[in-house]
Amino acid sequence: MYRRRLCLTFLAAALLLTETGCWSSNEIEDLSMYTALTIDAGQPTQTEQTFEKEGGSYLKDNKITVTIEIVPKQSYGNSNKTPDTGAKAPNYVNISETGDSVLEILRQFAIRLDRPVIGHHLKVIVISRQLLQEQRIQDLMDFVLRDNDIRPSCLILMSEGRAADTLKTKFGGEIPAFHLRGMTRNRFRNSRIMKGIITSELDALMHAKKSFLLQNIVEANQEVEFSGGGVIKGDTGRWIGNLEQQDIESIAWIKGDVKGGTLKTYNPDHQTVTYEIKSAKSKISAKVNKDHEPEFHVSIESEGRLIEKWKDPGLPSKKEYLEKMQGIFKERLTEMIQSLMHKMQSEFKVEVAGFGDRLSVEEPQEWKKLKDHWDETFSRTPVTFDIKLTITDYGSFTE
């Protein structure tokens, strides 16, 4: 028995020595790794138009333009200096193709590049608002959600202008895909940044036909900024409008997702006062009344610092003054939340702040009856709020 085990051990070791890696693997130098993908309404580039004039065309409708960001760029061999000026060259290259199938477009790059493109390291997908207004997100993302090469953690964003423009930067050596993904990590500094939706979450949302938000991004002079969120209607899969930056803040307060940031308002003399958020928490309570209609109550608590006040003679060391300022900040937060509630319940008639999720936990049987027409139900659902903001200190201050 011992001799048999010893032989099996040596045989296993010998087999390991003969292994050369995955049989289907490709050397990274033989691939074009794309880290970002954008989808715009169809608009062939000048290069594509020239190709078509020379006979480079195939059967298609120009419904969408897909742009991919490939890294590393291999145009200058091992050097990243431009031959003419010696300046640092971009570490990436963007290439676009227009058609009516995302997969076919990606395969079409094979007749323009010397290496096949592969999405193992895709970090972010940006879809233009115009296209989301015209086409269902289910159709635009169908290939992405089916493809095993694309990671389920890929971030999905919406752009106000051309999505391809978000993959440009004036900062040398920077890769736009990594920059966009890195911006989401700043939530501890600014609650106007959404947690973000990744591909695995998008699949579940679309399957449930739930309305949701995509972080909106705007571009100017090769710089980008997060600017509110695009509302995607669950039953249609299309964009129906935008929420502003302060609405994203309000949602974070309601859901208890505030990680940091500020709350700014004005005192009775219209002078700036700013509250720095040190901690925040919330609780959404759901119940169903005797008429089988849902009701919600949201309790929000926060502690923070009076960090800035302009031309205000009040002394922060005085209890009465701090209580007055707490009331001013509470009033401002209440205004923000009520504005959001009006947009959700009256303007867009959607629920994108987590109320349905809470109802499904606390009243699962009732939720089953309401989920198929939840947006409509929520538009007439009463929601009350209890807000408590406490100023715990006022920074370094000398009377």
Automatic annotation (TrEMBL):
Location within or outside the cell: Membrane
Main localization (coarse): membrane
Highest taxon listed in the record's lineage: Bacteria
Pfam families tied to this protein: Spore_GerAC, Spore_GerAC_N
Residue runs in coiled coils: none
Keywords: Germination, Lipoprotein, Membrane, Palmitate, Signal
NCBIfam families: spore_ger_x_C (TIGR02887)
Family: Belongs to the GerABKC lipoprotein family.
Protein name per Swiss-Prot or TrEMBL: Spore germination protein
